[in-house]
Amino acid sequence: MTKITVVGDAPENDEIKRVVQLYVDGFQGGMEKLQEAFHKEAWIFALDAEGALATDLISNRFERWANSQRAVKSRFIAITQAGEVASVLLGFDNSENLEDSWVDVIALVKVDGSWKITNKTAAHSTRAAWAKPNS
Prior knowledge:
- InterPro entries: FrzH/put_lumazine-bd (IPR039437), NTF2-like_dom_sf (IPR032710).
- It is a single chain.
- With 135 residues, this protein is α/β, with parallel strands linked by helices.
- Helix content is 20%, strand content 44%.
- The protein has a single domain, classed as Roll (Nuclear Transport Factor 2, Chain: A).
- The chain contains three helices and seven strands.
- A seven-stranded mixed beta sheet has the order 1-4-5-6-7-2-3.
- α1 packs antiparallel against α2.
- The protein starts with a strand and ends in an 11-residue tail after the last strand.
- 26% of the residues are buried.
């Protein structure tokens, strides 16, 4: 099991992890989970294995992600909370092929009492140095 680093006082650690896990679980047919996890105007910035940067409104990817049926697991590396903002460093590991894994920096904000992901910045695991999954 990977040790999770919590920086500062993160009293809502469990709720932050729950929302991020909704995003991961959304890849197994969970359109509703994705919609609950992300703010409707959340963005993605993703650096692929070749170094190409893609940007998009995350909701534009929901259907493709929910229908992908990718066998992914979450690996919480670090969680930081400062009041009503938080960030998670997440290993997004493909269970069937670790070489097709990602490392995400996820930003969250608490809106009307609920945590929402507002931004996902991702790098293919080949570009994630020490944060990539162990083989």
